[in-house]
Design brief:
The protein has about 450 residues and is mainly α. The protein has 19 helices and no strands. The chain has a single domain (about 10-445), classed as Hydantoin permease, CATH 1.10.4160. Helix content is about 75%, strand content about 0%. The mean pLDDT is about 90.
Length: about 450
């Protein structure tokens, strides 16, 4: 164990930071409309099954790699098997984080802008038909998305530059409980709307007649992508864990928090959209176009608009923190840089490279390659190609490279038990690689 390496202060601090990485726009923004498209309750059950059978085993393995390797996402693999090129798995993860941060910071900037609009009372205009126009004007502006992306990146840089314990852990200890409290308040408000029972029935009552192969694939992909698996986040965060960290318990807690927020988001959104007669499969503009219109018609709508967009911003911020930290850990350790220097250099690079993404809906909207804008290409390459490919490499590394028995030995250090190891070994060797091949083929449009 590298005793000079930064470490988490508490187990809860690690869990909240790692959960903050997993809990992002994928839970609050993407999950509800994907569930809506998939028929509601049946999709939720399938998603839960995949989160446990695919997400949890991979997360246990990633954290174990980080704690064993005691280095950044690439060098941890190198430390475990120096004679083989498995470090490519970690390097791909670092590239994924950088690419995702480039376009994710753009959308996170949108959430910050909408929170400020709601806070200053300029969001709810009284003209419901104008919310689509308002959103379109904002993202097509040649300057506004860039400004808010820059502000978001400065906030993230200032937190990460403070280090693991004083920056990432301390702020997640504040941000994550705040997020849960605000989500609870919004849930209570949504569930007290007249007719909310219809939305709850749609969301929670399984209707397996609506389940198709595409719904199953969507649930599988949502479980994999929403947990930020195979991106090096859990390897990096695992490298800051102490020798007595209960890896299965912590991984289970992270998956629980991630799934809980996705479920809570559904409890907020579905009763509201059914109450106001809105299509639950509306799509991504549900957040920025539909919900302002909902708050317009709601008692104390201005207050709940502030709470809602602050929740969205917090979820985006905690994920952006982990995205930057993975790349910063690699840069500072490979080039022996001070954390402050590495953080500002990496953050500035992500902002500059991400500028075409910020302008993809405005000045660069007509600039496409194979009918994809810069934003679309970053999203497609990072999320649809590299993430499932890195996940496949990770499963092969855990199942056949490092070997399951060696993973078990790392997990069980200092008397920690690894329950259901036999099942974990079967899943990681056979089931998960097959599932990740399916995700990869589906993501690139082969199936």
């Amino acid at each position: 164990m590298n005793n000079s390496r930064e470490q988490w202060g508490t187990r809860l601090g690690f869990m909240l930071a790692a959960a903050g990485s997993a809990i992002g726009l994928g839970n609050i923004w993407r999950f509800p409309f994907v569930a809506g498209e998939g028929g509601g309750g049946a999709f939720v059950l399938i998603y839960l099954g995949f989160a446990l059978l695919i997400g949890l085993p991979l997360m246990i393995g990633e954290i174990a790699v980080g704690r064993k390797g005691q280095a950044n996402a690439m060098e941890s693999y190198q430390a475990i098997l120096p004679e083989r090129p498995w470090y490519v798995t970690g390097f791909i993860g670092i590239v994924i984080n950088f690419m995702v941060l480039c376009f994710y910071s753009v959308v996170a900037g949108w959430t910050l802008y909408y929170f400020v609009l709601a806070l200053t009372g300029r969001l709810l205009t009284g003209e419901e038909a104008r919310y689509g126009e308002l959103f379109g004007q904002f993202i097509s502006s040649p300057s506004a998305p860039v400004i808010w992306q820059a502000l978001l990146m400065v906030i993230v840089i200032l937190i990460v530059a403070r280090g693991v314990k004083q920056g990432i852990e301390r702020w997640n200890n504040i941000l994550m409980p705040s997020l849960f409290v605000l989500l609870l308040v919004l849930t209570i408000r949504s569930l007290t709307l007249p007719g909310s029972g219809e939305g709850l029935a749609f969301f929670l009552k399984p209707d397996f007649s609506s389940v198709t192969p595409s719904v199953v694939l969507a649930a599988l992909g949502q479980a994999f992508f929403s947990l930020s698996l195979a991106t090096g986040v859990y390897v990096t965060y695992g490298s800051y864990c102490r020798a007595n960290t209960h890896i299965p318990g912590n991984a289970g807690g992270i998956v629980f928090f991630d799934v809980l927020v996705a479920i809570i988001a559904g409890l907020i959104i579905f009763p509201a959209v059914f109450h106001f007669g809105i299509d639950p499969a509306r799509g991504p503009d549900l957040v920025f176009v539909t919900f302002p219109a909902i708050f317009e018609r709601m008692v104390l709508g201005g207050v709940f608009a502030v709470l809602f967009f602050f929740c969205i911003f917090l979820a985006a911020l905690t994920s952006a923190i982990s995205l930057l930290e993975v790349v910063v850990a690699y840069v500072r350790e490979c080039w022996a840089l001070h954390r402050l220097t590495a953080t500002w250099l990496t953050g500035a690079a992500a902002f500059v490279v991400g500028l075409p993404c910020a302008l993809s809906f405005g000045p660069l909207a007509g600039v496409t390659l194979l009918d994809r804008t810069a934003f679309d290409w970053f999203d497609f390459l990072a999320a649809s190609v590299l993430m499932p490919f890195a996940g496949l490499l990770l499963a092969l590394f855990l199942g056949w490279g490092w070997k399951p028995e060696q993973v078990k030995a790392e997990v069980e250090r200092e008397g920690v038990r690894f329950p259901l190891f036999t099942l974990w070994r079967f899943l990681i060797r056979y089931v998960i690689p097959a599932a990740l091949v399916i995700i990869l083929l589906q993501s690139v449009g082969v199936i």
